[in-house]
User: Which sequence fits this backbone?
């Protein structure tokens, strides 16, 4: 058969995977209705419906589908069966862990980016998209008080940001001497730090936990003592990680003083600002967080402090060169890498394939303006101080430290109780509070004792929901007190 004899395939059958314009509009309309219904019902949704999940559900055994499933049936399944069976971090009553906001404008950016599918690992493949993302990173660095010329990369979150910074510091300071390298952090630091050290090939025995003060903040003089002792022992101190808001207590380390020690001793200073860095936008907190700009690197999670969707993190650095030296790699089939004013993001992280991550940050900043974020963060701080003052006034409630940001811990004291029994009663208190499913708190262990944690950072948490939360907590305290 000659080429002209090949029968043409009907146009409508060319690609069954490609959604046509009309079908796309219909699917977006139906999905939009579901999402709008979800958002409008959030005030009445429970904070934790994870118990709805049935591990023996029939759909878990469903075979691989050979033919299309009706879209409406799929949406019904997702919104009725899958989405509800979870903690509800979109709820205004979600005061657990460190809430993520889930701004729709960020989701819209992700939808656009995923649909147009621009490759942003290399500047040459999508120069305008890469420049837009670079612009968003510059804005973020400015917001965090980093010096002019600072930049960075967007990541999935602070765990990846910290790993990238640690590997860059390792390459700059240690070379082949990995097993002698020493890392310093406080006893309150996030568990992603030892995890990153393990992945980076550093010895677990060389991770140092520096003592904290009565407010759970790293003590710079103890840091300097530890560095000098390790150096005298023939080790190579090279990396210190401080915190701009710990996940246990919300404490802010003395960042400027730690930077001073790092400069004097020749260490890379990394700040874990995943939770707290964005509060630099609140005037009353700017001084406490001002030292972030002195650090070599800063991890910040816009999916926390800027209320964006989970999976939106950033690593900000004063100098991009150490990142390039740690991660640059190329191949004959790749476009020429940029070494001047333009950046190829694949040269600064472990990733080669990456989505257009910047649009989910750039679009909300453009749509809402930075003042809206400042006002919302200021409200969360105001709500936290209200909650702290209310609970502090209750005689049998213990709060070890005032909140630096919007997170604090508390517990109920019981006279005549041994520590294990008192911890058990506070665990019961947490269960009683959460059982109402109007608010959700979490617990933690600090100095060997169980505490309840309240973190007010959700986009939708307002005075009304806080009033309800304080009423629920007060009633639960009373019931256990009189029980």
Assistant:
């Amino acid at each position: 058969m000659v080429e002209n004899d090949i029968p043409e395939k009907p146009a409508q059958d060319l690609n069954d995977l490609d959604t046509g314009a009309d079908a796309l509009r219909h699917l977006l309309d139906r999905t939009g209705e579901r999402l709008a219904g979800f958002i409008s019902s959030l005030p009445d949704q429970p904070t934790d419906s994870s118990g709805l999940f049935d591990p023996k559900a029939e759909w878990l055994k469903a075979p691989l589908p050979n033919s299309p499933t009706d879209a409406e049936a799929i949406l019904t399944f997702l919104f009725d069966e899958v989405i509800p069976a979870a903690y509800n971090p979109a709820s205004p009553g979600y005061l657990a862990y460190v809430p993520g906001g889930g701004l729709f404008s960020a989701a819209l950016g992700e939808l656009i980016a995923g649909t147009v599918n621009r490759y942003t690992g290399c500047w040459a493949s999508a120069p305008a998209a890469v420049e837009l993302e670079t612009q968003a990173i510059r804005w973020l660095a400015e917001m965090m008080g980093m010096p002019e010329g600072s930049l960075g990369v967007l990541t999935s979150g602070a765990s990846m940001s910290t790993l990238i910074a640690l590997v860059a510091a390792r390459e700059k300071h240690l070379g082949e001497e990995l097993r002698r390298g020493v890392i310093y952090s406080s006893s309150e630091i996030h568990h992603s730090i030892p995890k990153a050290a393990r992945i980076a090939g550093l010895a677990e025995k060389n991770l140092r936990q520096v003592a904290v003060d009565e407010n759970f903040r790293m003590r710079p003089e103890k840091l300097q003592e530890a560095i000098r002792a390790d150096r005298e022992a023939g080790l190579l101190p090279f990396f210190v990680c401080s915190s701009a808001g710990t996940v246990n207590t919300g404490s802010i380390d003395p960042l400027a003083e730690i930077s001073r020690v790092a400069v004097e001793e020749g260490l890379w200073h990394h700040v874990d600002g995943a939770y707290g860095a964005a509060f630099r936008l609140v005037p009353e907190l700017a001084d406490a967080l001002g030292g972030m700009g002195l650090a070599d690197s800063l991890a910040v999670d816009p999916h926390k402090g800027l209320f964006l969707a989970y999976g939106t993190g950033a690593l900000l650095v004063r100098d991009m060169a150490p990142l390039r030296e740690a991660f640059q790699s190329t191949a004959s089939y790749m476009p020429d890498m940029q070494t001047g004013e333009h950046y190829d993001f694949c040269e600064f992280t472990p990733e080669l394939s990456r989505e257009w991550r910047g649009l989910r940050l750039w679009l909300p900043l453009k749509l809402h303006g930075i003042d809206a974020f400042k006002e919302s963060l200021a409200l969360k701080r105001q709500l936290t101080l209200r909650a702290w003052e209310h609970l502090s006034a209750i005689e049998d409630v213990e709060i070890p430290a005032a909140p630096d940001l919007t997170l604090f811990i508390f517990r109920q004291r019981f006279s005549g109780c041994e520590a294990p029994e008192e911890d058990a009663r506070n665990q019961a208190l947490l269960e009683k509070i959460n059982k109402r499913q109007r608010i959700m708190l979490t617990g933690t262990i600090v100095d060997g004792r169980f505490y309840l944690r309240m973190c007010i950072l959700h986009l939708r948490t307002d005075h009304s929901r806080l009033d309800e939360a304080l009423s629920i907590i007060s009633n639960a305290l009373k019931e256990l007190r009189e029980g």
Summary: The mean pLDDT is 94. The chain has three domains: 20-87, 107-369, 371-482. The longest helix spans residues 370-392.
